[in-house]
Design goal:
This protein has about 180 residues and is mostly helical. The chain is built from eight helices and two strands; from the N terminus they run ββαααααααα. The longest helix has 18 residues.
């Protein structure tokens, strides 16, 4: 397991040099998700992207690919069948904009390790990127109820102050009169 608090960002897998830039990770993700490639082509392209020219035996290379894509923390019983909620292709502009807005980092000029990039994706709250993800992941059945509850909270938050009673208004007027005379 990779621990970013304790471990240096890796530049190899089991002694084999790997290409660690976030762009390689994005290309790997695009390759794996490409419906026009069969599994054999996906594997070959992905391994070539990650290792370049020097590659370990096939099983070690595959293990390294899984390890890299999971940022050194493969999950037990990982299925890989989760529904995608964003696309590095379709959401590229929103991701670049979000990194600039949240972190002040220009991804077109930035050099960043994949292991740094992935956790930062999760910290892009309040951007168009996460708004789009929210829209994609919200069930249509949830919308009416969600909006009602949110509407009530917003009503309470922005409610106008209750008007003063006649007694309170008379007391305020008396105080104002005394202040004028003083």
């Amino acid at each position: 397991m990779f621990n970013p608090l304790l471990d240096r960002l890796p530049e190899d897998y089991n002694g084999w040099l790997i290409r660690t830039d976030f762009r390689i990770g994005v290309q790997l993700q695009l390759c794996v998700a490409d419906p026009e490639l069969d599994d054999c082509d996906k594997t070959g392209i992905a391994l070539g992207l990650l290792y370049g020219n020097g590659m370990p035996d096939f099983q070690t290379a595959l293990d390294g690919l899984r390890w890299f894509l999971s940022c050194g923390n493969p999950q037990e019983g990982e299925t890989g069948g989760e529904q995608a909620v964003f696309s590095f292709e379709q959401d590229a502009g929103r991701i670049v904009s979000a990194f600039k807005k949240v972190f002040g980092r220009d991804l077109s000029r930035e050099r960043m390790h994949w292991f740094e990039f992935v956790p930062m994706l999760g910290d892009l709250a309040g951007t168009a990127f996460t708004s789009v993800i929210d829209i994609r992941t919200t069930s249509a059945a949830e919308i009416a109820e969600k909006k009602r509850a949110e509407f009530r909270r917003m009503q309470q938050r922005f409610a106008l102050a209750e008007p003063y009673t006649r007694e309170e208004q008379a007391e305020i007027q008396a105080v104002l009169e005394r202040v004028k005379k003083a």
